[in-house]
Amino acid sequence: MSMNNAPNVFLDPNANRFQVNIINEDHDNNETTQVDVGSDPPHYEETSFTDETHNRLRISYRPGKRELYDNFRQNGEKTEASLHPYDTHSKMYYLQTFGHNTMDPVPKIDYYRNTGSVSGNKLNRPSLLEIHEQLAKNIAVSTGSVERVANGESTAGDETAASKEEENKTGFVKFGWVKGVLVRCMLNIWGVMLFIRLSWIVGQAGIGLGVVVIALSVVVTTLTGISMSAICTNGVVRGGGAYYLISRSLGPEFGGSIGLIFAFANAVAVAMYVVGFAETVVELLKESDTLMVDESNDIRIIGTITVVCLLGISVAGMEWEAKAQVILLIVLLVAIANFFIGTVIPTNTEKKARGFFNYQGSIFAENFGPDFRSGEGFFSVFAIFFPAATGILAGANISGDLKDPQSAIPQGTMLAILITTIAYIAVAICAGSCVVRDATGNVNDTIVPGMSCNGSSACGLGYDFSRCASQPCDYGLMNNFQVMSMVSGFGPLITAGIFSATLSSALASLVSAPKVFQALCKDNVYKGLEFFAKGYGKNNEPIRGYVLTFVIAMAFILIAELNTIAPIISNFFLASYALINFSCFHASYAKSPGWRPAFRYYNMWVSLFGALLCCGVMFVINWWAALITYAIELFLYIYVTYKKPEVNWGSSTQALYFVNALDSALALTTVEDHVKNFRPQCLALTGAPMVRPALLDITHTFTKNNGLCICCEVYTGPRKLCVKEMNSGMEKKQAWLTKNKRKAFYAAVAADSFRDGVKSLLQASGLGRMKPNTLVIGFKKDWRSAPATQVENYVGIIHDAFDFELGVIIIRISQGFDISQVLQVQEELEKLEQERLALEATIKENDFEEGKRGICGFFKKASSLNISKHETKKESTINTIQSMHVGEFNQRLLEASTQFKKKQGKGTIDIWWLFDDGGLTILIPYILTLRKKWKNCKLRIFTGGKVNRIEEEKLVMASLLSKFRIKFADINIICDINIKPNKESWKFFEEMIEPYRLHESCKDITTAEKLKREAPWKITDAELEAFKEKSYRQVRLNELLQEHSRAANLIVLSLPVARKGAVSDYLYMAWLEILSKNLPPVLMVRGNHKNVLTFYS
């Protein structure tokens, strides 16, 4: 039923609510099909949000038909669905099943495109936040938002039109699977070997083993073709051929290495094929005695002319090159057909003397078995033939010029392999059935009655070629490379076939090399090669690549010695085949959900077998060439790995990293923790890593290559803003860590309070056994001016860490860790500098325009003066800001933030190991001394003891450390830790805590109770008295630290523990303050009182 002719379908109260209207918005088609899912559907859970009592309708407007639906208003109520988000799309099908207004887009390919897609424009679907918030707030979709969501910030119709206009304007030439893949592969596979070497191979190996040689070669190419088909059908294939397939599957390391040598091999292959053509021409000139100079120079002259002509065809465009290929294929097919026709044309006396007797059973039987001569064997014959089977990548190499590479490459390549294999086997069998192995060429060598013969098939056919056993002959399968010309119906056609085979292969290689090289350069895998990435013309032709290929080909043509380089080129191609097979295996083995090839006829183990087979064939053909190929590939692989190109292609290597990491993490869960394997795994509260770099640096120093380090940030405030800010910054901050070579992870949480966030991180961070066991935080320098809730949260975090049995490290440096103000000022100055540079560029541009326009420029002076004034104002603003922020841009703070990046000079790390916490206090500084930056620092140990047992205590500590195998420079026994501090120090401590004391003892009980309720965080007199001795100890320890460790590079000190509910937050902060005041960098460490050191083996 046509929708246009039946508007009442929308108002029918009996209409099925699961009815699907398929709307084809094609302006050329006035018919719209309505599909009824069923007149009586099963009663499933309600899927429509329509409030039927209010008759809310779902209406889609067709162009020019809006007036028709304006009448569909009931009781003056405006329809909610007056505009659907996807009604603006043209030429698309939409399923109208929801019955409510929604921003949710229907599935569409445009949402899945890459940003730079050439096959269509990328659309942006609404974010989850937009969908979520819209539903939560129940906001109707406005027309503006509908257009933005549905059309990806522009109308889809416009995008489609723009895409088509661009395509029409540029006139892309795209090939189908026949002209683009089948023709090219057949031409490349059918090479000179078919005409001048296949008969010799049959003579050496016999028909039986000859077919095995062909079959084995075809097995290699077929397995590679299958693997290539699987990779090609696992996503859109762009230009670059083998390089593209390997790089997108195995990553830039493998792809970059093979891409460069593959492009080079194709460039040199041009020279090989052209020299083959030139040699054939020179042979003809030699026969007619018309050489120009001599054989070598004639090859160079003809080769140069040929390459120039081929380059002209290539530069003219792919369309001309494709036409030339078709013509060459026709010539080649005629030449092959000419051979088969010649085998059935009755032979003559001359041809019989040369060993051709038409089809004879006796010749077939004699030639079926092998007869290896001149040191040849099965593998040497196979090595000679195998290059004839290569060429299967000819179609894939121009993947960027194919209409549908996903279907064209598998279809064309596999069919080309089948056709060429049949041709090779048929030619081998026919040649072996018609021509004897040896013939003299002398028509008088016939059998005379009464004459004895050697019993060969030639004897039975009346010819005696027995003297070939004792002296060399010039004819027969073993001796004459021109057997096909002799057998054929018209000899010159075989010569034309040889010309066609060489020129077509040269042309294919001349096109392939620049295309592959251009794709490699576009990816910027090798930084210095961007120059060759530029394309020209309607098909983005790599003209620069053509010129480079021409230069390389010319160089090797002029050398004219290709016998040495030829095996290396064959191995380069085989290395590509091996990696294509391995890519298929690797992608399957990685079990990535993204590996979903449409081509199903592959098996990962068969692909692995194909890869190993290719590697084996490389050594069979030429072992030293194989070693050279592997050496070059390994060098390029290491180079690309070292350079680390910034690309992300979702390779199977990445997928395997994940699988291996997951397997290792799961395997680790079955391994019980052991004290010998303990390593600090730190959760560092750095906030954004770039804001507290010094805290990250010191933590990273004892976790790098040794333990886990997680930089954590807690977002507090309105949840919506926090989550948005957190999500937007995750990748940026992890990237900062990677860029700055910090082996750490970044984690963030959004919470109602800082303490709640840290509590979540303490409980949930890590994976399996890879969980944090130590909390690292900076000392809260502003605790005296901060709100009481912040101090409570800070101390509460330490309590929480101990509750979850984590060790705690509090780090204090004199300048503090937070450099956010410095970063902010730097950012402002950078912005202003950019604005200044932009203004300068504008002024220069205006001055240039004035110079161009002459007197007309006079009238522009005013605007230039305004700009100059504006610039002056900007400069003065910069100077003002610089002067304003002189105090904030604290050079000492910047220096302090980088102090742990610098190499520490000769000095000491003083360890005040006052309390046994399991050994973490001694382990952390020991790990530091293993690092290059700290290796010049010696460990000095300070511990408490009795005056009358100093030497014994030293011996005990030295014995303990030696058992732990920890080297130390000195041990100091401190005997006066528990004496009272001097009056000045104690007075300073009392003045410090005075603002936070309650002084309840000076007040009556009622007032005191009231004060406790109003300020429960204050230090009571009772608490201060109860912990007076402990307070004395902290103050006294600072005096001792000032006395003994003021010159140390780093102090590592046992962290005092405050009992929960007994010691107030401010008293504890006062202890930490007085303990670490006016000292070098201090690490206050407390382990979780479980052993982290052992002296057992």
- What is the distance, rounded to the nearest whole angstrom, between the alpha carbons of the first and last residues? 86 Å
Integer average pLDDT: 79
Largest sheet: 10 strands, mixed
Taken from the alpha-carbon principal axes, the silhouette is elongated
Which stretches of 5+ consecutive residues score pLDDT under 50? 1-99, 134-171, 855-886
Family: Belongs to the SLC12A transporter family.
Pfam family, one: AA_permease
Transmembrane segments: 181-201, 207-237, 258-279, 299-319, 326-345, 378-400, 412-436, 543-562, 568-589, 601-625
Main location: membrane
Tell me what you see in this structure.
The strands form 2 sheets. The protein has a 10-stranded mixed beta sheet with strand order 6-5-4-7-8-13-12-9-10-11, with helices on both faces. Strands 2-1-3 form a 3-stranded antiparallel beta sheet, with no helix packed on it. The protein is 53% helix and 6% strand. It is an alpha/beta fold and 1097 residues long. It is built from 37 helices and 13 strands. α24 (693-703) links the parallel β4 (682-684) and β5. The model is unreliable at 1-99, 134-171 and 855-886 (pLDDT under 50).
Descriptive keywords:
single chain; 1097 residues; alpha/beta; 10-stranded mixed β-sheet; 3-stranded antiparallel β-sheet; 53% helix; transport; sodium transport; Solute carrier family 12 member 1; transmembrane; phosphoprotein
